Amino acid sequence: MPTRSYAELAPLVLQAPIIADATIRSAVRIKGAEAAGVADGFVRFYVNADVAALIRGPGAVAAQVGYLIDMPLDARGRTPRPKGMRVIIFARPVPGRPDQVQLIEPGAQLPWTPANDALVRQIARAAIEPDAPPTIIGIGNAFHVPGSLPGEGETQIFLRTQSGDPVSLSILRRPGQQRRWAVALGEIVDDVAGPPQRDTLLWYRLACGLPPALPEESTANEAPDRAEIARDDYAFVMQALGPCAR
User: Could you give all domains of the chain from N- to C-terminal order, each with its CATH number?
Assistant: First the structure.
């Protein structure tokens, strides 16, 4: 069973009020009108699952929960057999029914593997840290300040966040040296901090939250040559972050 990537798991972990390690006790295939909307190549089940561990969730979650799940047919077109499968589910509570949950999206049940479990827990812990990076919702102003030597300068790019907390990028150019960049979570830019490690929550917020190119309005007040440098420095950061592989 393939391990899901950080970028695939992070949206599920960050959105789900309930995350559970569970084993499917029983599964009944749903047909007819109750299976309306099922995509081609999928079948719908109502399953009951024993919760072995609650990775995140309120105390009202029962030891056994029921939910609907659409599962794909296998390579030969045969109906899957969910009974006995150990899974990780990402769900929301059903009001007034502690023994029922609703998956947050159709793909919000994953096969349990040690690697998937460890990564889900890692992301869940990172999300509740006091210094957890905020959600990026766009880019504010960007500007480039040339240095005293040809080819020297610094670009600063201010990001907009859901919480309003300040986040900014700083890209330094020095003659004869590779460009360096850093991200600051606060008012003070720490050039020594450097870029985020890949497959961390800060990396995910940037790689999956930033647009592919610097918006024109971000450099509207810059001279054309400085705006072009800022756009090039932004492209350098995006290349360094790598793709958001979902």
Answer: 6-127 (2.40.50.120), 136-241 (no CATH)
